[in-house]
Amino acid sequence: MLRPITRNLVLMLGLLAGSGGVRAATTHAYFTLHHLGKGIWAAIDKPGSHAGSNSGFIIGDKAVLVVDSFEDPAAAKALLKVIHSKTHLPVRYLVNTHYHLDHVAGNGVYRKAGAVILAQRNVRTWERTENLKFFGSKITPAQKKMVQSFVLPEVVYRHGIELYLGHRKVVVRVLPGHTGGDSIVVVPDANVVFTGDLFWNHTLPNLIDANTAAQIHTNTVFLHDYPSATFVPGHGEVGHAANVRAFRGYLENLRQTIKNAQGKGEQGKKLVQDVLRQIKARYGEWNYFGYFASKNITQTVAELAGKKHLPEASP
Ligand SMILES: [Zn+2]
Questions:
Q1: Alpha carbon of 225 to those of 174, 219, 250, 291, 314: distances in Å?
Q2: The domain spanning residue 73 has which CATH number?
Q3: Å from CA of 178 to ligand 1 middle
Q4: Is the pLDDT of residue 11 over 50?
Q5: pTM tops 0.85
């Protein structure tokens, strides 16, 4: 049902092949599965598959936790099948890293499987409302109904939560930058961090709701707190510190290039063209450059001017 509806969204929010070190990988219809450590798997979106974003799961000795649920419930069903093939333990938790539809559309699949869905409190507030904007003014009744039927998290937190899958501890931590309601999922005993869309590997980010200054700082926190971790980004391949540094560098470069152009008196179309030319020289090979580069510039210009509209946080 989602396929025709989400085709454009795959183009808008999805993923093309990225770079980064990976270990044993197996290819499935919607994703490539990477084994990151004992009982930890990343499901990396396969280009053109409608998965739309990355996901993954963590197996403890009593239960399983899943990170994000893709853009298409069929992809979530495919991952659930993989989980069942690896363990008979129950899928007890699903953490939504943020509200964007390419990370939550498959929530219903996990709810049906008995999982409790958790997220930062703003995710529950925004999931059925803010996601409407991705369809633009020509949203169809079917698309509207789909967004308004998304399954919401039933456990919400402000700053984070710690979960135990038996003996195995999973730390869910809230950090700012991508939407204003972003969580990362950390597995301390395996040194693995699922970053959601706070980190995009070799891929231009969607900055529609972003605070780039905060996102830069958050990536510095990643490097400081988890210097040798394996990072599973929201989009792009599994990465490490060098990839996080490169992504932070992109955001810094974007902001600085805009400020330099403004320093020369440039604005409007001329500024966009000039900045685009300069960032293309360094980042033109990154995934989604063609789709997101101009948007990244105009949205960051608005942010720097204090004129960017951001979703309103829960009171
Ligand atoms: Zn996102």
A1: 14, 10, 20, 32, 28
A2: 3.60.15.10
A3: 7
A4: no
A5: yes
